[in-house]
Amino acid sequence: MRVFDASSLIHAWDNYPESQFPALWEWIARQFASDYFVLPSIAYDEISHKAPDCVLWLRARAVTPITVDNLILQEALRIMALLRIVDGKYGRGVDENDILIIATAKVKGMHLVSEEARQSSAPLSPANMKIPAVCALPAVTVSCLNFVELFRESGVIFR
């Protein structure tokens, strides 16, 4: 099962238009319908601001976002402590939304799909870690892959 960051769904929407890749979008719709793909409410809100047509597509398919609950919030606070983020002072890495999305994947026991770039080396400050680096922390351990890796891993052939 996969939790989507806004960046991956927007990447797919922008780079694989439904009109040209209908089989891909039918597959994505089936994955959301079966809850194999889920979308945190935070990511849904980001998509609504950056890709309103994509949100219309999600609404038409009755994709229900996952609401941040107490378990997710507690996990997000734990991750913030790991990154030494205090009083909302984020570095150049993850922001509050990113942490909530990572926490959703962790709590739900799912893999995270994000287009955020992997960092070639660990930053000196944990607050400067990007999503894949945070996911890879031993105290977090959330598998993180990007959109192309996702459909390559699926083995699905789109015709």
Commentary on this structure:
The chain is an alpha/beta fold. It has one domain (1-129, 146-159): 3-Layer(aba) Sandwich (Rossmann fold), CATH 3.40.50. Helices cover 51% and strands 6% of the residues. It has 8 helices and 4 strands; from the N terminus they run E-H-H-E-H-H-H-H-E-H-E-H. It has helices at residues 6-15, 22-33, 41-50, 52-60, 70-82, 96-108, 131-136, 147-154, and strands at 2-4, 37-38, 111-113, 144-145. Strands 2-1-3-4 form a 4-stranded parallel β-sheet. Helix 1 (6-15) packs parallel to helix 3 and helix 5 packs across helix 6 (96-108). The radius of gyration is 16 Å and the shape is globular.
Write the layout of secondary structure elements.
Elements: E1 2-4, H1 6-15, H2 22-33, E2 37-38, H3 41-50, H4 52-60, H5 70-82, H6 96-108, E3 111-113, H7 131-136, E4 144-145, H8 147-154
Parallel strand pairs: 1-2, 1-3, 3-4
* End-to-end gap: 23 Å
CATH class: Alpha Beta
Number of domains: 1
Record the strand order, biggest sheet: 2-1-3-4
- Which class do the helix and strand fractions yield? alpha/beta
The CATH topology comes to Rossmann fold
Summed over residues and divided by their number, the pLDDT gives a mean of: 93
Rg on CA atoms, Å: 16 Å
Strand content bin: 5-15%
Counted by DSSP, the helix tally is 8
| Main beta sheet | 4 strands, parallel
Helix content: 40-55%
Count all strands and give the number: 4
The CATH level-2 architecture is identified as 3-Layer(aba) Sandwich
Can you tell me the overall shape? globular
**Low-pLDDT residue intervals, each spanning 5 or more residues:** none
- The CATH superfamily name is 5'-nuclease
Q: Could you give the order of the helices and strands?
A: EHHEHHHHEHEH
